[in-house]
Amino acid sequence: MNASAHRVFSPSSALLLAMFCFFTAALAVPPSFAMAQTPVLTLKDSDRGTLVDLYPTGDPGGDGFYLYKNGKYGYSAWIPVEITQVVTLPDNEDGVILASKDGNTRFRVSGGLVEFVPGGLKGAFDETFKEHQAMITDVLFVQNELRAFWVISWKEEGMMHHRKFAVKDDNWFDCEFFYPASLQEKYGFVTDGALRNSGFLEK
Predict the structure, then answer these.
(1) Helix, strand, or coil here: 75?
(2) Which of 63, 69, 165, 185 has its CA at a distance of 20 to 30 angstroms from the CA of residue 119?
(3) pTM of the model as a whole
(4) Distance CA 124, CA 137 (A)
(5) Is 90 exceeded by the pLDDT of residue 13?
(6) Does CATH number 3.40.1000.10 belong to domain 11-200?
(7) What is the pLDDT of residues 141-171, one digit of tens each?
(8) Could you tell me whether strands 65-70 and 50-54 are parallel, antiparallel, or unpaired per DSSP bridges?
(9) Which residues contact 145 (CB under 8 A, 6 or more apart)?
(10) 126 compared with 35, residue with greater pLDDT
């Protein structure tokens, strides 16, 4: 299959345009489980009693991020170091939902089985695009022999949202990073690092 891309732009999305153009040129592969076995931070959900370990990224460009590894669905995510306040650590081990200290910036990541996503990659894309169509600032859809993922960004009620969804074999990966639009300049490159380095692990 050939890679395809769909894009919608606004004048305020120059930084995001550069970010997603980089996506089309190369998709960084998240670190493998073999890297960084010693956790540097352990998160706890006091309501559920669940614990999640975060690790160094093991990457020279990973300053400012922790590595979250999900063995259940075979994905990893780069978590910004300032977004480590626990909102929810589900006891089904599907992912995490974290926030900044003030609660205004959040990062969520989860995984699951493709068979439970109607239409798979394209179905999830169509649903998200339709829901946020009037607010979308940028879109990227890639599907070929090596990778299958999409990224949609939109602005809603003063918040910038960036969502990445990927499929590999029988599993799906989903993450969303959102923050006040007034902090777009601050979080532009953080968004780039978090999304570009989050996804399925190498075998």
Answers:
(1) strand
(2) 69
(3) 0.83
(4) 18
(5) no
(6) yes
(7) 999 988 999 999 999 999 999 999 999 999 9
(8) unpaired
(9) 1
(10) 126
Measured between alpha carbons, how far is 176 from 115 in angstroms, rounded to an integer? 21
Beta bridge partners of 35: none
pLDDT higher than 90, residue 81 = yes
Using 50, 70 and 90 to split pLDDT, how confident is the model at 202? low
- Paired tokens of 130: 């339709």
- Please tell me the distance from the alpha carbon of residue 43 to that of residue 77, in angstroms, as a whole number: 15
Distance of CA 111 to the CA centre of its chain: 11
Distance CA 196, CA 183 (A): 20
Helix extents (H) in the chain: 14-25, 120-132, 184-196
Task: Give residues with Cβ within 8 angstroms of 143, minimum separation 6.
Answer: 1, 3, 4, 121, 149
